[in-house]
Amino acid sequence: MDTIRIGMIGAGFMCKLHSIALKNYPMYFFPPEANVALQCIADSNVRLAEEGMARYGYKEYEEDWTKLIARGDVDAIDIVTPNWVHREMALEALKSGKPVFCEKPLSNTLEGAREVYEAARSARVVNAVGYNNRCIPAVTLAKQMIESGQLGEIYTFRTQYMQDWAIGEDVPMEWRLDIDKAGSGALGDICSHAIDLARYLVGNFAKVAAKSRTIIKKRPVSESAVLGLKKKREVLGYQEVKVDDEVEFLVEFTNGATGIFTSSRFAYGHKNTLDFEVYGSRGALKFTNEYLWELQYYSGTDPEDRQGYKKIKMGPMHPYGMSFWPIADLGVGYADLKCAEMSHFIEAVSKKDPFLVSASFYDGYKACQIIDAVQRSAREEKWVGITDD
Ligand code: NAI
Ligand code: SOE
Question: Gfo/Idh/MocA-like oxidoreductase N-terminal domain spans which residues (predicted)?
């Protein structure tokens, strides 16, 4: 059996998730399509690269990511660096002809995402973008139910992705709050997952009408601020904030359905809440990641005196079920879902078939196209169309 030797660029939060997911792959997805080796890790902070090598079990480490891509002992590239460096790294990986997994969003600009997508299309190598929520068993089941016609014609898709970590004037500047680095705020950071889920479950967007705002317009700058850590740090200065702290938008899908999106990183009561409802002519679905292992289904065709939501508990008979646990309702963890997403990437690399990934660079480009349209709509206070390319 082949061994796919992974080169990981970035040694932060997502490096931990991806490394654990890749290590667990052959145990959850057995027999594996290929063996996976954590071969080399790179980070511009060489101390983190060296630490990551020891912590996750990589064989080598590099400070220079271009050297990692060029190594003869690296077969596939996994990009888990911040948004603004995805473009150059993905282009270099594609140029090397090696399969590449890039975390979302594909780029911090629409132009960068389009350039990467077009390069992947001509390079004809396996390419995937990190939209792991597609691989939540309940979400995949929702897709199967919608595609089978069980909900009939889809009328409305309502979704929210809400967090609270950005609340407070003392939360320091970090790349997720810097428009030049991240490309957007809540919109690209968390709502892009909801955008991708909407495309996955309902279809492409025709046009959007948006409203967004920056709530805290100036933040303290301190040494090496890390997401979520609220430790007091020495304030070195202040930086203007231009990212969206909250965003709301309406969508008209190309199939005529309507979408209602809300996303904020200023939402007390939500540490990391992603939920959606789908309303159709024959029924409805409800999901929240706060009950990751459940999908609520309402059949509009039940006898009128017996209608109501029923709670479907995910188990071995559901998507990815046999890869996880033999009885229902034992739950999955964050790394398990990334492992499910990685299983598609590993299979695609092993079979050299770009169509086997879960979300591709095309999906990553489409999400960036929608992010750009939402930003334009909010700026110009009008509906903005999205080309169906
Ligand atoms: P992080 O800030 O924790 O780690 C990024 C690492 O990249 C840092 O160690 C930094 O030193 C390194 N780095 C920065 N510039 C570099 C360069 N030029 N060359 C080499 N290394 C460089 O970031 P985090 O939270 O891991 O996010 C990484 C990416 O993953 C982001 O694009 C984010 O949007 C995405 N993400 C996706 C999630 C998902 O659910 N799919 C969840 C969290 C993040
Ligand atoms: C921070 O808001 C974050 O880590 C996002 O960057 C991820 O995409 C999201 O899945 C979880 O929250």
Answer: 4-131
Domains by residue range for the chain, with CATH: 3-132 (3.40.50.720), 134-329+366-380 (3.30.360.10)
Identity at 219, one-letter amino acid code: R
- Give residue 115's pLDDT: 98
Residue 231 pLDDT > 80, yes or no?
no
Q: Any residues with Cβ below 6 Å from ligand 2, and which?
A: 163, 189-190, 193, 227, 272
Within 13 A of 302's CA, how many CA atoms are on the CB side?
Answer: 11
Q: Is 105 exposed, middle or buried (0-12, 13-18, 19+ CB in 10 A)?
A: buried
Give the ranges where 29-109 is alpha helix by DSSP (H).
46-56, 65-70, 86-95
Cα–Cα dist 29/172, whole Å: 41
Q: Which ligand is nearest to the CA of 16?
A: 1
Counting ligand 2 atoms within 8 A of each CB, the residue from 15, 81, 104, 189 with the most, and so the one to mutate, is 189
Whether 140 and 344 have beta carbons less than 8 Å apart is answered as no
Q: Is the CB of 130 under 6 A from ligand 1?
A: yes
